[in-house]
């Protein structure tokens, strides 16, 4: 009996045995096949070739933006109301309809400009993208931590990103390139005022706000629509931001701090929660406002358009595999369910094409069949082929077209009328009438606490000292148009800084005197003999 017990020790179940992708057991995962124990290797090294060729391909193209990310699973719980009113008054979207109704979600937080392993302490907008797995299919609410954006027309998106990305020659992010673009883009002043303040470096992902940024529509059972903006407000965990000095100190200790913070909080059961609020506005031009309500560089005044709670989100499960879930998850601003619709926001219209298009390039034509992207409901399409197709979406394999008399798929019955907005006018290439690029930036500056203003001025000064004087003068003109004190303080900072600045190429946005860091590394380095 004892012998029988000992003879089973060290054995593995079938599920624990190492195999290759063909299901062949791997009996030696340490050594290649060679002629003698010193080589050379032989061509029929099948196990090695399978292993190394997959390893050579285990990275997919990095996201052009939002490359660095962290994610988690959870759920959204609806209140059934919007403020004090039944939500059905405004939208027929089922996920909002009933109090207590829970919808599974996956959230990806990210930094925008830098690569996959860049520090999470850098001054940069943060992505806040939520995938709702609803009973009517997926809804992606793709947003940022800040509620406004740099530009209002999607035509400028590649230029914006190129200016913020590293210089194509030096491969260094260069604030002169950034402010060369911004100084010719006055609509960005509102976003710049947020980005160079402590709001530009959230303390972590749990303690930051989120926003859909763009304007969308809600559609009710009658086909009537209103304009909406979405906002995620942290609940028990609150909101925390960092100054530039604090961020640099944290970066010296841990450049993955935000990813680690999110993972460890969920592991210990400290589940982060956010309340989803909406602002609602009638769908018209609103001539009483001094800005266009579809302009994503503007905030809707909260006193006129209050934040109305519609539900809360809880993140309570970490990913089981980073690549399969966080890296391969794919979002798109056009992924809407019945009861949700697009507005005429020009930036949103451009993003709606671009986001899903880039996922097909990055992950593949069948990216929606990956478990993290697939809806949690039955799917039936006539789409055919494409790289990595591993499931046919239809019951009748012979009929991959519609309509058909002899079988195949048929259209669903429409339960409520479409929203039918009226559109009329000449097709033009023009900017909106009410740009008002500086007013809200000035208001934001005046609302800041003194320590936030101090950090904002210091960060802008450090950045602008690396810029051509022509860029400095244009930016100062913008700051003065935002607020007299705002402009005066930046001007004073530049004049003082010119006398003791150690300039160099580029440097991370907002970094304290990056040129001095280059020189310090050479100066402080300890000599060593070759070995």
TrEMBL record:
This is Catalase. Belongs to the catalase family. The keyword Nucleotide-binding does not apply. Heme binds at residue 355. Its cofactor is heme. GO terms for cellular component: cytoplasm. It holds the Pfam family Catalase-rel. Residues 19-410 form the Catalase core domain. It comes from the Bacteria. It comes from Brevibacillus agri. Residues 1-39, 496-531 are annotated as: Disordered. The lineage of its organism: Bacteria, Bacillati, Bacillota, Bacilli, Bacillales. The active site is at residues 66, 144. Keywords: Heme, Hydrogen peroxide, Iron, Metal-binding, Oxidoreductase, Peroxidase. It catalyses: 2 H2O2 = O2 + 2 H2O. Its EC number is 1.11.1.6. One of its GO terms (biological process) is hydrogen peroxide catabolic process. Residues 1-11, 19-34 have a biased composition (Polar residues). GO terms for molecular function: catalase activity; heme binding; metal ion binding. InterPro entries: Catalase, Catalase_AS, Catalase_clade1/3, Catalase_core, Catalase_haem_BS, Catalase_immune_responsive, Catalase_sf. PANTHER family: CATALASE, CATALASE-2. Residues 521-531 have a biased composition (Basic and acidic residues). Decomposes hydrogen peroxide into water and oxygen; serves to protect cells from the toxic effects of hydrogen peroxide.
């Amino acid at each position: 009996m004892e012998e029988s017990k000992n003879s089973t020790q060290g054995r593995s179940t079938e599920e624990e045995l190492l195999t290759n992708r063909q299901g062949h057991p791997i009996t030696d995962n340490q050594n290649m096949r060679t002629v003698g124990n010193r080589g050379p290797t032989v061509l029929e090294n099948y196990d090695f070739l399978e292993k190394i060729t997959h390893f050579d391909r285990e990275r997919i193209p990095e996201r052009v933006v939002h490359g660095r990310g962290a994610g988690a699973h959870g759920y959204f719980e609806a209140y059934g109301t919007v403020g004090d009113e039944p939500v059905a008054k405004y939208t027929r979207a089922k996920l909002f309809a009933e109090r207590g109704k829970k919808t599974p979600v996956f959230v990806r937080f990210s930094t925008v400009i830098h690569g996959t392993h860049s520090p999470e302490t850098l001054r940069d907008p943060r992505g806040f993208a939520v995938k709702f797995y609803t009973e009517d299919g997926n809804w992606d609410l793709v947003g940022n931590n800040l509620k406004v954006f740099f530009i209002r027309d999607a035509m400028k998106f590649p230029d914006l990103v190129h200016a913020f990305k590293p210089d194509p020659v030096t491969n260094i992010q260069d604030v002169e390139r950034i402010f060369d673009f911004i100084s010719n883009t006055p609509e960005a002043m509102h976003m710049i005022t947020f980005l160079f303040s402590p709001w530009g470096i959230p303390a972590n992902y749990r303690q930051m706000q989120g926003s859909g940024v763009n304007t969308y529509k809600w559609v009710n059972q009658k086909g009537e629509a209103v304009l909406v903006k979405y906002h995620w407000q942290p609940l028990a965990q609150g909101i925390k931001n960092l100054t530039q000095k604090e961020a640099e100190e944290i970066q010296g200790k841990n450049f993955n701090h935000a990813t680690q913070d999110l993972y460890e909080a969920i592991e210990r059961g400290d589940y982060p929660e956010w309340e989803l609020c909406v602002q609602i506005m009638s769908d018209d031009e609103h001539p009483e406002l001094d800005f266009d309500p579809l302009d994503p560089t503007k905030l809707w005044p909260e006193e006129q358009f209050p934040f109305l709670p519609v539900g809360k989100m809880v993140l309570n499960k970490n990913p089981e595999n980073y690549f399969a879930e966080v890296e391969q998850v794919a979002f798109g601003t056009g992924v809407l369910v019945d009861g949700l619709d697009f507005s005429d926001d020009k930036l949103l219209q451009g993003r709606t094409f671009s986001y899903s298009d880039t996922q097909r390039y990055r992950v593949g034509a069948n990216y929606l069949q990956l478990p993290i992207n697939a809806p949690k409901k039955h799917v039936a399409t006539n789409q055919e082929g494409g790289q990595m197709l591993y499931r046919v979406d239809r019951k009748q394999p012979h009929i991959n077209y519609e309509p058909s008399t002899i079988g195949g798929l048929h259209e669903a019955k429409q339960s409520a009328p479409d929203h039918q907005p009226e559109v009329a006018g000449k097709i033009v290439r023009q900017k909106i009438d009410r740009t008002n690029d500086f007013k809200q930036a000035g208001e934001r500056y005046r609302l800041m606490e003194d320590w936030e203003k101090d950090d904002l001025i210091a960060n802008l000064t450090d950045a602008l000292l690396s810029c051509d004087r022509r860029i400095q003068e244009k930016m100062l003109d913008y700051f003065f148009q935002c607020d007299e004190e705002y402009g005066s303080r930046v001007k004073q900072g530049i004049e003082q800084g010119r006398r003791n600045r150690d300039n160099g190429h580029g440097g991370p946005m907002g970094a304290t005197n990056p040129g001095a860091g280059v020189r310090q590394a050479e100066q402080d380095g300890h000599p060593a003999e070759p070995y």
